[in-house]
Request: fold
Amino acid sequence: MNDGQRAGLVRLFQTGADAAAVALSRWLGRPASIAVRDVELLPLEAAADLLGAGEEPVCGAGMPIGGALSGILLLVADDAAGLALADLLVGRTIGTGRTWGEVEESATLETANIVGCAYLNAIAAALSAGEPDSAGSIIPLPPTFVREYAPALMEGLLIDQAALSDTVFLTRTEFAIDGAPVRCALVFVPDAPSRARIIDGSVGPASMGEG
Amino acid sequence: MGGLAVGRDAGVLRTFLGSCIGVALHDRRLRLAGLAHVVLPDSQGRPEDLGKYADTAIPELLRLMKAQAGGEAIRPVAKLAGGARMFAFQTGVVIGEQNLAAVERALEAAGIPVLGRCCGGNKGRRMALDVVSGAVTVEAVGDPPESM
Reply:
């Protein structure tokens, strides 16, 4: 993957992040921004530790994706940020929720649905604008709630790519709400066929019509 | 992922596991322990990253433990953890199960008995191996720790 490809992919995923931020702002009723931090090939070991060393659990929702850009989209946060998000959504004072129950899990899943679909729809639209024949569609499927040690969670996400290579491709975005950073991220991990298409350039800059 | 570690006389060896298999080997007499984090079942002849594959990780871990034993014969036993299928929608992914089967074959080939297993399911795990006692503790988020 060369610099031109990487720059094109950053633009592509930032398009998704901007749309996701708009959706998150509406959902929360507060200003939110989402910025692409990583679009890269990483050694397996570094990628496994991307979300932290894992002494404390992280929570989130994993959304499988089919179609032109298949893989898994993970909305992930540390426990405090995840519970604070649930508090915001059910109109409670932040800090009220201290354990994960049905309400908190449901709030996380719904947030993943809203943010994830906005992100993917914008990416699908960007791909289709460049080269309709090759872009096809992106199909999000219902997310699953997860609460795991971060390295174990990343390992589960990366295992498909690990079967093919010692490096893994992923993208990571970071969130701010009300102008303040939130320990929450949206991580896209392509499956093996999508990884191959991204690396060989058939998804990304060429599909967007510029290099 | 794919790491190998050996300790003797003191300490705890730890790893996190999703679909991968943690292989704990322990020789009580020598107070010698080794831990492998197996990512994939078969090296297909690759000469590098020996700890990553079941068929190369077990022989390499035994080699490292023998080096620590200073020429004494080692008689390790094994305990295994991991091999989860972490997302229900990953229906096509059976790497965890393939990893476990490949590890069991490699241990059998090396004549190493397996004394305990904490494998499968849909949860990631934290595995800790006490170098002196050989006790293995396996934790999953939201569940009580399991000892073997």
About this structure: The two ends of chain A are 12 Å apart (CA to CA). The longest strand of chain A covers residues 32-43. Chain A touches chain B at residues 44-45, 48, 54, 57, 62, 64, 72, 141, 144, 146-149, 151-160, 162-163, 166 (CB under 8 Å).
